[in-house]
Write a structure and sequence with these properties.
Blueprint lengths: L8 H24 L30 H5 L14 H20 L3 H23 L4 H15 L3 H11 L2
Length: about 160
């Protein structure tokens, strides 16, 4: 980071990015764990009870849940505590990796795979399944990360993963 930025700034930025990724992770957990599986792109975020679409200001990680007092703006039904907990856990994973490794590729690797493992654990706890989207998606991401070491890194990753 630039020397004129306050100490810990990169950790705060990593935590904020992690919270946003945690918000998307909640969508993946709920929609990939559903039967039949649902798209994580369409339809946009909505209340799981009444189906009302969420405005951008109702979708701010953790903050919106607190402001709305854990209730849907439309139907008033409770919104699960899972949403802010996953967002906070992901923010924590990303902040820890930034603290531990700085803004490096290693920090990004750890943060991404920590988030994927959280998604796997939450989906498995809720639905007793581990969606292929997490495992196969994680495999593809791992192979892309291995390219940081060049073609040799990709070859090594492909050969040694069983």
């Amino acid at each position: 980071m630039a020397p004129d930025l306050p100490a810990g700034f990169e950790i705060v930025i990593a935590a904020l990015l992690g919270a946003v990724i945690g918000s998307f992770l909640n969508v993946c957990i709920l929609r990939w764990g559903a039967e039949p599986k649902q798209s994580v792109v369409r339809p946009p975020s909505r209340c799981p009870r009444c189906g009302r679409g969420l405005a951008w200001y109702d979708n701010i990680p953790v903050l919106s849940w607190l402001i709305l007092r854990a209730r849907c703006r439309g139907c008033g039904q409770p919104i699960s505590v899972q949403y802010p907990l996953v967002e906070l856990a992901t923010a924590g994973i990303w902040a820890f990796m930034a603290w531990r490794y700085g803004l490096t590729l290693e920090a990004l690797r750890g943060a991404v795979f920590g988030a994927i493992l959280l998604g796997i654990a939450m989906t498995d706890a809720r639905e007793y399944i581990i969606p292929d989207e997490f495992t196969l998606g994680g495999l593809v991401i791992a192979l892309v990360f291995s390219l940081a070491d060049g073609l040799h890194g990709l070859t090594w990753a492909a050969v040694t993963s069983r």
